[in-house]
Design brief:
Elements lengths: L1 E5 L17 E5 L1 H8 L6 E4 L6 H10 L3 E3 L8 H11 L4 E5 L6 H10 L1 H6 L2 E5 L3 E14 L6 E6 L3 E8 L5 E7 L8 E2 L4 E16 L2
Parallel strand pairs: 1-2, 1-5, 2-3, 3-4, 5-6
Antiparallel strand pairs: 6-7, 7-12, 8-11, 8-12, 9-10, 9-12
Enzyme class: transferase
GO molecular function: thiamine diphosphokinase activity
InterPro entries: Thi_PPkinase, Thiamin_PyroPKinase_B1-bd, TPK, TPK_B1-bd_sf, TPK_catalytic, TPK_catalytic_sf
């Protein structure tokens, strides 16, 4: 199973959703209303819905049955509530849209939520018009060229990434220790259709970016 989540961030940062099909959709706050306007009826709606009008909320109620309405003052963001539910379903991958481009506290909080996937062994990607963000634990991974997001960057999400090796990239590396505060691995590219990256310790953020 694949689960897609649309949060309530600025719609101009959300890519065309037609590329990502055949998934269970969850709408978060205004993201529910946005999905319905795109002709996609989400399986579940989550949020305090403080970013839509009472008329828009009534429209959502008319179109959907599974709606979880939360108070504005709570210990978790709407996105975290939705992501917790998604992780509990044990999907193969979760893709989060509409979580960037607005308030920075929400965006960085959303990036922190990607860690939930590492704990459960579930891939979680955060996607917008220009970026695909994903966290990786130590191991070896295949990277496939994506013409829509040709640039690949690696950013430490832990104090040190030990023995980082990049093969098939324009700027290769062999057993390099990448530390917090370094920009060495920003804006790389795959030379062929496929390449690999590996490391023996740490948590690495991979960011694919468009022009």
């Amino acid at each position: 199973m694949i689960i897609h989540i649309l949060a309530g961030g600025p719609e101009e940062n959300v890519p065309s959703l037609h590329r990502w099909k055949d998934a269970v959709w969850i709408g978060v706050d205004r993201g529910v209303f946005s999905l319905l306007n795109k002709g996609i009826v989400p399986q579940k709606a989550v949020g305090d819905f403080d970013s839509i009008t009472s008329e828009e909320l009534q429209y959502v109620r008319e179109k959907m049955q599974d709606i979880e309405l939360y108070p504005s003052e709570k210990d978790e963001t709407d996105l975290e509530i939705a992501l917790n539910w998604a992780v509990d379903q044990r999907p193969t991958i979760i893709r989060v849209f509409g979580a960037t481009g607005g308030r920075l506290d929400h965006m960085f909080g959303g990036i922190q939520l990607l860690y939930k996937g590492l704990e459960k062994g579930i891939r979680i990607q955060m996607i917008d018009q220009k970026n695909i963000i994903e966290l990786c634990k130590s191991g070896e991974f295949e990277s496939i060229k994506d013409e829509s997001y040709p640039y690949v960057s690696f950013v430490p999400f832990s104090p040190i990434i030990e023995n980082l090796t990049l093969k098939g990239f324009k700027y290769p590396l062999t057993n390099y220790n990448l530390e917090w505060g370094s920009t060495l691995c920003i804006s790389n590219e795959l030379l062929e259709q496929r390449g690999t990256f590996s490391f023996t310790k740490g948590i690495l953020m991979m960011i694919r970016s468009s022009d």
